[in-house]
Write a structure and sequence with these properties.
The chain is mainly alpha-helical. The protein folds into two domains: 136 residues, Up-down Bundle (Four Helix Bundle (Hemerythrin (Met), subunit A)); 79 residues, no CATH class. It is built from seven helices and five strands, in the order ααααααβββαββ. The strands form two sheets. A three-stranded antiparallel β-sheet has the order 3-5-4, with helices on one face. A two-stranded antiparallel ribbon has the order 1-2. A hairpin with a 2-residue loop joins strand 1 and strand 2. Helix 1 runs antiparallel to helix 4 and helix 3 runs antiparallel to helix 4. The longest helix is centred in the N-terminal third of the chain and has 26 residues. It is globular and about 50 Å long.
């Protein structure tokens, strides 16, 4: 599967997720707070944001990140889905779909009018946050840090004395501990990457693995590093 096919698959999946969000919002705006439905909405936004990041759809990631934060506060009980909030989230859901479609159809060139509409929606949405959000949401943190690789691993993927000696891409994935609780499957990143090129080597780092006694199965605590070749770039 090439990059264009993968993008079309993402477009189709995102439409399905956004429809689920819309259906959930129409149900919740009546005032009944359903934890299962709220969690499903959060997972939909979280999945769209993560998948958009894989394709470098930065405008989609930035906008969806704010929606995701609001839904996370609803999950935690800090905020409730009121008719007023639903009235903002519904056009936000539509805006995410339009952003994705326009980004893919126009090779990443988004109109100034669409971006301006998004800014207006975000300003309204941020007023429902508890506490109100600032502009820091424009730069969502990945929480990634670097960890030195063992010499044997560096040699295997073609790195010597800090210099890359092959045309391979070296990618490091470090997920937050709540990634599984939030409904995101880290393996989905590997599946998407495998559609963009051939993964020639994968290793898992266990530097954050706790002792067996206090360990619980929910936190994500491992780091995956992989090397891939033939990773095409999106046309600009």
């Amino acid at each position: 599967m090439n990059i264009d096919q993968a993008l079309l698959t993402f477009l189709e999946e995102s439409r399905e997720l956004l429809q689920q969000m819309e259906d959930a919002l129409l149900y919740l705006e009546t005032g009944e707070q359903n934890e299962e439905i709220v969690n499903a909405m959060f997972r939909a936004a979280h999945t769209i944001k993560g998948s958009a990041g894989l394709f470098s759809l930065d405008d989609v990631v930035t906008f969806t990140h704010v929606v995701e934060n609001i839904l996370d506060q609803v999950r935690s009980g800090e905020t409730r889905i009121t008719p007023d909030l639903a009235a903002i989230l519904l056009p936000c859901s539509d805006h995410i779909g339009t952003l994705i479609s326009e980004t893919i159809d126009k090779d990443g060139k988004i109109s100034a009018e669409l971006l301006a509409n998004g800014e207006l929606l975000l300003e309204k949405l941020k007023t429902f946050a508890n506490p109100p959000m600032g502009n820091s949401s424009n730069n969502p943190q990945t929480g990634m840090t670097s960890t030195p690789l063992e010499a044997a691993v560096l040699d295997k993927i073609g790195i010597e004395d800090g210099t890359v000696s092959t045309d391979n891409w070296h990618i490091s994935l470090r997920f937050g501990e709540d990634v599984l609780r939030n409904g995101m499957d880290p393996a989905s990143f590997l599946r998407y990457l495998s559609k963009l090129g051939e993964i020639v080597y994968v290793t898992t780092l266990f530097d954050r693995m706790p002792a067996p006694e206090p360990w619980t199965p929910n936190p994500a605590i491992s780091v995956s590093r992989l090397t891939s070749n033939r990773m095409p770039q999106r046309k600009r």
